[in-house]
Structures are given as structure tokens and as C-alpha cells.
Amino acid sequence: MKFEEKDLRFMGSPKQEDTSKVDTPFAFVGIPYGVPYHAVDLVACAGAADAVRQVTYDMGIAFNWDHMNFDTGKAIFADGVPTVTDCGDVQTDFRNSEQIWDDGMDKIRPLVRAGVVPLVVGGLDSIPPIVVGAFEGEGKTYNILHIDAHLDFREERYGVPRGFSSPIRRIREFSCVNEVVQIGLRSMGSARVSDVEEARAAGNRLVTAWELHEQGATAFLDTLSSDLPWIITIDCDGLDPAIAPGVGWPEPGGITFMEIGTIVRGLAKRNSVAGMIFTEFQPALDERGITAKTIARLMMNVIGIQDN
Ligand SMILES: [Mn+2]
Predict the structure, then answer these.
(1) How far, in Å, from the CA of 291 to the mean position of ligand 1?
(2) What is the pLDDT of residues 150-180, one digit of tens each?
(3) Which residues lie at CB < 5 A from ion ligand 1?
(4) Is the pLDDT confidence value at 1 over 80?
(5) Is residue 294 part of a domain?
(6) Is residue 2 part of a domain?
(7) Can you spell out the DSSP letters for 46-115?
(8) Which domain holds residue 239?
(9) Residue 5, in any domain of the structure
(10) What is the CATH number for 74?
(11) 3 located within any domain
């Protein structure tokens, strides 16, 4: 049964569009439009945040805050007090790439300043630098964990420097960024051999999907430094198509739910998650809401585990 409500809110949490007025430790934000290459790019993921909101009604989470969440070993929200606010979606003029960046950062920055952890659903994979840019200039430094089948380190593509083949290149340019670790790389995408060499030269640590599977998620987690908070950015095609079928470029052999869960939960247990971003989720391609559910579950694990 599909629950129908006009004003969907993630987990049925309160809504507050003004991000300077959020008083919960976590905030859910939709960024439907990143910088596109072609007009059609704007359509594919625009409904992703709403699909994640919807699945939290379909799962019953929105009405059953006192139910046990076995992922965290406790009620979804203790004493009926939500710990996340739904801040709605970034409104912007998607014909203007400067505007897309400015409006996105303006929405996220008040959360960063208040110590609220933004939980963001894009958008194509051109949105991560918008979110990371909101952390820039606040006097703190962060590590980036990027999950993706693809490198996303092109200087430009089709003459566009802020498109979805370049987000990690752009993220590297922020002075608030320290380490960049990229996991889940496999098969081939827009990256050329020279782009891989440039990513390594920039200091990025690249872990292929093969390497992660062989090493195991727990051992990998142990290699992540505890010195700085982490911004986790997940292109859904980095995950295995079994748990994230709703993507434009499904690629077998991706990161399993237990692997990504172990990594995300491990960082949350350290209280190290400064922000979380999901991109490239195309609801029209989803199968029985599995991709939306994967995103909601992982966000709920951070919300339920991290003591923010
Ligand atoms: Mn990708």
C-alpha cells in the first residue's frame, strides 16, 4: 500500500525550509538539480529526495517512531522526539550553473555553522562539491569518503567543469578538504588513464571494488583516520545493483549493503560523520523501492547511531 500525502517529510519528521532555524542534530535536504551537461540530465534524479521521503511512509517509519529499529537496537525516535528535520529541496534557477552552486551552498551553510549534520539526496553526481563547498571557509578541515563505480576526476567534460564527471576534482580544490578516499571503482566510465594518474598525484587514495571485497569492510574501516570528521558522498552506482538498481549506469560487483553499512555505521560510532550525500538515484528506474530504502536505511543508521 502506498501512503499518499501531499507534503512528504523524511521519516515523518517536522519540516523547516529555513535551515538557520533547525534545532535537531540532523537535517534532510534535497538538491534536485546539479550542473548538467544536457537538459535531459536535469530530469533523471529530480524526484530522488521525494522518493526517499515516500519510502519512509511506505516502510511505516513515519508513523511508528516507537518501533524497534534492529539496525540500531532502539526505537526510531525515543520518547517521540525526532532528531532530524526535513528542510525541503533547494530551489534554484537550473539554467544557471553559478546559481545552482550559490543556492545549494546557501541552503546547507547554516546547518554546517550550527553543527547540524546535513543528509542530502541529489541530484546527479555534480552536487557533492555544492555540499562540500558549504563547509569551506568555516575554519575546519574534513576528509572525504567517495563511493562510486567511477572516478569523477575529469577537469572538464563538454567544456563544463562542474558536471557529473568532475565532482571530486572540484572537491579537491576546497581548502577545507584533507584526505580523499575513493572506493568502489570498477569497470570503465568517463575516466581516462591520465585522470587516474592525476587523482593519485593529487593525493587521492583509490580502492577498487575488487580490493574492497578482498580486504573486507571492517579491515578497510580500520584504515580510515579518526583525526578529522568525514563527509561521505555516495554515488548510488558505487553500490551493487542488487541494493541500488535505480541508477543510470548499473555495474555488477558493487559494494554490498553489509559492506557500506559496516563502513557508515563504523564512522557513525566514532561520531565522525560530518555530512552524507547520495547522488545518481533515478526513481523511475528503481525496483520495488529498493534504492530508496537503501538510502533511507543508511541515513537512519547514522541518525540512530551517531551521538551528535
Ligand atoms: Mn558513478
Answers:
(1) 15
(2) 999 999 999 999 999 999 999 999 999 999 9
(3) 148-150, 235, 237
(4) no
(5) yes
(6) no
(7) TTHHHHHHHHHHHTTGGG-TTSEETTTTEESSGGG--SEEEEEE----TT-HHHHHHHHHHHHHHHHHHT
(8) 10-305
(9) no
(10) 3.40.800.10
(11) no
